[in-house]
Design brief:
The structure holds two protein chains of two kinds. By secondary structure, chain A is α/β, with parallel strands linked by helices. Chain A is built from twelve helices and 16 strands.
């Protein structure tokens, strides 16, 4: 075990996955990852083409070309950069190119803000990318080879985002076990796609589909996401077999089985929630955690099963759908429970926007509000950490 | 048979189809073609059909140069880049307007690829809207001639000069009406190491409003009037021009196209034609065409 920065741990795990082409554009707080990768290339530790492109849009576009030509590809970005990629994200997925990208989650402008929330990746929800969210640095690092294995599976063939909270995970120094080359090679086979750009066997990529064929392309993407539901679980277990580390597949839980109040969240806030639960459990409270690791594909069945004994569900969102006064996790969890017999209240809290700290006291405040449901006072969804004096 | 198969859905007399065919005649089988969104992309690949006899990829409108960069990088990384040529064939909108940034990046990085702009001087695929390549006073659907307008008020953007300023080792202009010259230049571009550029003038019968049987004639008139000079630049210097033995006045080029009709019917049109003649005169002087 070594103490390294989160970005270094991720860069190192990218190196272990041996991508053929990396293409990226610098943006805070993603910069340390691409700087570390550039150094690996400069020191001859990585044999790949590293492309310094002129925008995030070209970063992802270059990887679309590279992936179609048969290369394993990697990029990393955040916030405005991810938003700039938006159009091409649909394209990579529609063309079934398994690009892997670390999204170092950051708030979106305006107002401009470089700190963490998850509005950036959440806003790319419908682009057809797999999205996994990491809880800590070790999980962020270990997610990279897992995502290559999931994305490149021939039943899946979808691009994938590894989401890690900006600064909180990207810039923190934590004790980490760095991936080893031999074990990663054992875990992750080389990328050998069936369909590539090859003059010996010419094929057309990105054809024009009219109303008589377009729908079926979307249907097949959806089916690929369904295949990914299984693959994410499988690969998490395979990783555990090789490396002895496991963070859940689609979901993970903490003291969930007997919990009356269940908190659901994604990303680095999971650690704070676990500490809060430990504290409140000592006081006799019946609280548990349901961690969402996979936001796309969304694990509907796993969530329904996990919530079957819950009396109250709390969702925490570092994002907002403006005009719905709700975060995406809240909306999705409610939607996945509606057509079931589970009539459990779901209460949404939005917090941690633009890097606002989420201390244990905020989680406690949220839990206390959720308890009011028993008294018939129901909060549908609200900001949990507003500074009233600024409004 | 041509590597761009017949039976595609191009208009009768389509300039893009001719350009695509000539480019593949020049390059041969061992290439990968990247196309941005545009007429050529749409009419050659109605799923599940494709007219392309070479590997071909279309991603988006504005990213063909970046996609081609990625293909080239992948081929290098995978040890496949030997003789395989990486070619972009894109329209003027994708090249001069929306894709300019990605092209700049690709040329700056120095990828070994050839970018071919097939310039029909407007957004034809969407219905003849003006682009940065639309010449002065051409009437398009978004720069129409009207009671107080002579059509497009701007001059055509000088894309070859922009590419040359990036330090490209080989930049050339060509025309679909001079096929042997075009084929020779595309060959030279693809055989030159580094990012190279060929800007192909391509009269569009639908957008410019002339009979589909006249495509080649209209393209010849552009060259013969010095509205479209044919030249080559190596490392930023003009190294070859096609001389004009007997230059024709620009009216001969303008009058055969519906997009310039207003210049011959509206009051004051004669004065405006003089401004177009001045462009041709500048070309003659600048490139030494006579």
């Amino acid at each position: 075990m070594v103490v390294v920065e989160g970005s270094y741990a991720v860069a190192h795990s990218v190196k272990m996955c041996k991508p053929n082409v990396i293409s990226a554009y610098p943006i805070t707080p993603q910069t340390h990852i691409v700087e570390d990768l550039s150094q690996f290339v400069a020191d001859g530790e990585m044999s790949c083409e590293y492309m310094n492109v002129e925008s995030e849009f070209s970063a992802i576009s270059a990887l679309i070309g590279a992936s179609a030509a048969g290369a394993r590809t990697y990029s990393s970005t955040t916030s405005q950069g991810l938003a700039l990629m938006h159009e091409a994200l649909f394209n990579a997925s529609g063309m079934r190119l398994p690009v892997v990208m670390t999204v170092v989650n950051r708030a979106l402008s305006a107002p401009i803000n470089i700190w963490n929330d998850q509005q950036d990746s959440i806003s790319q929800r419908d682009t057809g990318w797999i999205q996994l969210y990491a809880e800590d640095v070790q999980e962020s690092a270990d997610m990279t080879p897992q995502l290559y294995k999931i994305a490149e599976d021939e039943e899946v063939l979808l691009p994938a985002m590894s989401c890690m909270d900006g600064f909180i995970l990207s810039h923190v120094y934590e004790p980490v076990i760095l991936l080893e080359q031999s074990l990663t090679d054992e875990f992750l086979p080389p990328f050998s796609p069936e369909f590539v750009l090859d003059p010996e066997n010419p094929m057309s990529f990105g054809a024009f589909a009219d109303p008589s064929t377009y729908t079926e392309f979307r249907y097949k993407q959806e089916k690929a996401m369904e295949a990914a539901l299984l693959k994410i679980e499988e690969v998490a277990n395979e990783f555990n077999e090789v490396y002895g580390r496991y963070y859940g597949g689609l979901i993970d839980s903490y003291l969930l089985d007997d919990a009356e109040i269940v908190i659901m969240a994604m990303g680095s806030v999971i650690g704070t929630i676990k500490d809060t639960i430990d504290m409140l459990r000592k006081e006799g409270e019946s609280i548990g955690l349901l961690k969402i690791r996979s936001f796309r594909p969304f694990p509907v069945e796993a969530i329904r099963t996990a919530l079957k004994n819950a009396k109250v569900v709390i969702t925490l969102d570092k994002n907002i759908s403006i005009g719905k006064n709700e975060g995406a996790l809240c909306t999705e969890v409610k939607a996945c429970l509606y057509n079931t017999n589970l009539r459990v209240p779901v209460i949404g809290f939005m917090l941690g926007h633009g890097g606002r700290d989420i201390p244990i006291s905020t989680i406690v405040k949220i839990i206390n509000k959720a308890k009011l449901v028993e008294k018939g006072i129901f909060v549908e969804s609200e900001f949990a950490d507003l500074r009233e004096e600024l409004i | 048979m041509s590597l761009l198969a017949p039976g595609h859905r191009g208009c009768a007399g389509c300039c893009d189809a001719l350009a695509g065919k000539f480019v593949l005649d020049a390059v041969g089988k061992d290439c990968i073609v990247v196309s941005p969104t545009g007429c050529l992309e749409v009419f050659t690949t109605p799923y599940p059909e494709s007219a392309w006899g070479v590997p071909w990829i279309h991603s988006l409108f504005e990213n063909a140069a970046a996609v081609a960069s990625g293909v080239e990088a992948a081929y290098k990384a995978l040890g496949k880049k030997n003789k395989t040529k990486i070619i972009v064939i894109g329209g003027d909108g994708a090249t001069l307007d929306i894709g300019l940034q990605a092209i700049s990046g690709a040329f700056e990085r120095g990828h070994d690829l050839t970018y071919i702009c097939v310039d029909n001087e407007a957004y034809m695929n969407t219905g003849v809207q003006r682009s940065g390549a639309t010449p002065l006073f051409a009437s398009t659907t978004t720069s129409p001639a009207g009671k107080v307008s002579f059509g497009n008020p701007q001059h055509k953007k000088n894309m070859p000069a922009i590419i040359a300023a990036h330090g490209s080792p080989y930049v050339a202009t060509a025309s679909i009406s001079y096929a042997p010259d075009l084929i020779k230049k595309v060959k030279k571009a693809t055989e030159t190491k580094g990012p190279t550029y060929v800007h192909v003038h391509a009269p569009c019968c639908t957008g410019w409003k002339f009979e589909g049987s006249k495509t080649i004639e209209v393209g010849r008139l552009a060259v013969e009037t010095a509205m479209w000079p044919l030249y080559e630049m190596e490392n930023g210097e003009v190294t070859g021009v096609r001389k004009l033995k007997k230059r024709k006045p620009v009216e001969e080029y303008l009058k055969v196209q519906g997009r310039y009709k207003h210049l011959f019917t509206a009051e004051g049109g004669t004065e405006e034609i003089k401004k177009i003649q001045a462009i041709a005169d500048w070309n003659v002087k600048h490139f030494g065409l006579e």
